[in-house]
Amino acid sequence: MKRISLLELAHNIAGSYLKPGDIAVDATLGNGHDTLFLAQSVGVKGLVFGFDIQQRALIKSYQRLLEYDLQSRVKLCLASHADMRRHIPEQWHGRVRVAMFNLGYLPGADKTVITQIDSTLAALHEACALLAPVAAITVLAYPGHPGGELDAEQLAAWCQRLDKANFTSEEILSHHDKPGAPRLFVIRKQSDLL
Length: 194
Ligand SMILES: C[S@@+](CC[C@H](N)C(=O)[O-])C[C@H]1O[C@@H](n2cnc3c(N)ncnc32)[C@H](O)[C@@H]1O
What we know:
By secondary structure, the protein is of the alpha/beta class. The chain is 34% helix and 25% strand.
């Protein structure tokens, strides 16, 4: 049996929602792997908004997109994901199909610049407000980081508080059944009003 990583699973889930022409958000650009995946998935008429607080992440992501000539599909924002609503033009509010969060630090850079649970929860709140009627958010969390276990608990508690008329959530544990193993939170929106 082939075991897939939680990152692959996050891509599979996000990909199952995305169609050509869709709007997507990469809330944590990092080295741009998720942004590249999203840009490929939304097609030539789609658009991806990517956020990171480090210039280096924007440069890395831009370079990756250039390699595939996909840079015109992505708006890179040097800003906290907590401010995403201000950076995404109003015409796209209520139309975001997928938002991906990959928490932690930028691999190969300063490990002390790391996502913080308060801004992560604020960003998740903003992302929920921007979603299309049928949409999903994936959050890959790494409880192995200092403080990461508490962050994962707070994420789980936040998911429990979601409006159940519109959202469902699940927490998927890694195969590596050891303390600190990554966890994937999947939040799905399916409005009752449809
Ligand atoms: C694990 S990396 C993301 C990996 C990335 N998705 C990829 O595909 O390579 C986490 C990123 O979150 C960024 N970050 C930390 N706090 C942030 C915030 N408040 N808003 C946006 N990005 C943030 C870090 O700078 C880092 O680049």
